[in-house]
Structures are given as structure tokens and as C-alpha cells.
Amino acid sequence: MRILFAEDESTIREFVSRGLREAGYAVDVVADGEQALLAASTVDYDVIVLDVSMPRIDGFEVCRRIRAERRPGPPILFLTARDTVADRVTGLDAGAEDYLVKPFAFVELLARVRALLRRGVAAAPLLRAGDLILDPAAKRVTRAEQEIRLTAKEFALLEYLVRNAGRVVTKTMIAEHVWNFDLEAESNFIEVFIYALRKKVDAPFGHPLIQTVRGAGYRLDAPDP
Question: How many CA atoms lie within 13 A of 129 on its CB side?
Fold first, then answer.
């Protein structure tokens, strides 16, 4: 799951982004409204968290423009010190789903993000690749009707592969989407997670779904069940 977090206060920006990453999310961080609009127009985010009082373009206007360009678009949560009823109404009328007032407890922010993510995937269909089935809402994986227990990052990696089944995805694409960082040229970080995923998803079932494409990356085969 990928989150856009727009906040001009550096202390809050660093604290929240670190906490979200530790919770297993990929997070893109920007410091003003123009950057937020640019990011939202180029990346399909699962949730957007916006400060209201940002430089250049405020959060309300950013939200309006995102909703004008993409409907329904990702759920949006406002994070702001403006706590009047009028401000809340303005935020909701602009198209946001939720509104959290500063100061706040990070655990509450995390709970609200989880709620928005559940709302976004509740009606989503199950993801299938052959006899492999992913339930994005329940974070549940089965293959040949046997449940497979994955860590949060293993699930995120497998979900990304399944959503791109039949296509080659590079290590850089995986690192940016699942972990949100630039991959060093000699790093074997991705290989380690692919190996762990294969042990759980492929090894017990005979037919491997996760394929290595030499010199290019990885591809998840999607045979007919």
C-alpha cells in the first residue's frame, strides 16, 4: 500500500512518515501543495494525507483539484490544526473522507489510515493467479486452498507481483512501489525477499509461479486455475 503524505512542518513530516514506514507502508513525502498535486497526478496512491495550511496551494484546494481530475480517486485524510466546525465542513465538502486535528496521537492516525484503506478495498475483487488467491481486504493468501502466512512486506511484494501478473517488473520498480526507496546497484535486498516468498508460495506446491527473467527482473505467471 502506498501513501502520499503532504506536510510543511518538518518535525511532523519526519515523525509521521517514519511511523507509517515502520507500519509497513510505502510513503511519498512532500512539503507543499504544488508537490502534492504533482505526485497525485503521477502515482496511484491508496491513501492521501494532507495538511491544510501548506505553502503555494493549501490542502483544501489540493483536495478539490484531485477530486476534479480523478473520481472516485484515493481516500483523503486532512491533518490540521484548524479545528472549527466550518473548517471540518470545508474539508469534507472539498472531497475528503476524514479529518484529524493536531495535536494527535500517531496510533489514532494509523487507525484512521487503516480504516480508509479497508474502505477502499472492501469492495475490491479477490486477486487470482492460477490456484493462488489474495484477499487485499483481509490480507489473506491461499494456494490450492491452503492458507499461507506472510509478513506485511511479503504480502505487499506478492500483491504487487499478482497485480502485474504476466508482466516483467524490475527490481527498481519493486523497491519504489513496495519499499519506497532507490535501490543501490549492488544490493541483493529484493532477492532476499523473493527467496523468502518462493519458500512459502512456490516450494510446497510443486509448480513455481514466481519466475526470474534474467537481466530484467521477475514475472509472476498466471496459469488458468
Answer: 22
Mean pLDDT of the 184-198 span: 80
Amino acid letter, residue 47: V
My answer on whether omega of the bond before 136 falls inside 30° of 0, hence cis, is no
Write out the H or E segment, with its range, that includes residue 135.
Answer: strand 132-135
| Predicted TM-score (pTM) of this structure | 0.62
Using DSSP, state whether 204 is helix, strand or coil. Answer: helix
Contacts of 51 (CB under 8 A, 6+ apart): 6, 7, 8, 9, 12, 59, 78, 79, 80
- β partners of residue 80: 101
What tens digit of pLDDT does each residue of 33-86 get?
999 999 998 888 889 999 999 999 999 999 999 988 866 678 999 988 887 888
Sign (positive or negative) of CA dihedral 198, 203, 205, 211: positive
Residue type, 154: E
For residue 208, the one-letter residue type is P
Contact assessment for residue 59 and residue 6, using Cβ atoms and an 8 Å cutoff: yes
Q: How far is CA 160 from the centre of its chain?
A: 10
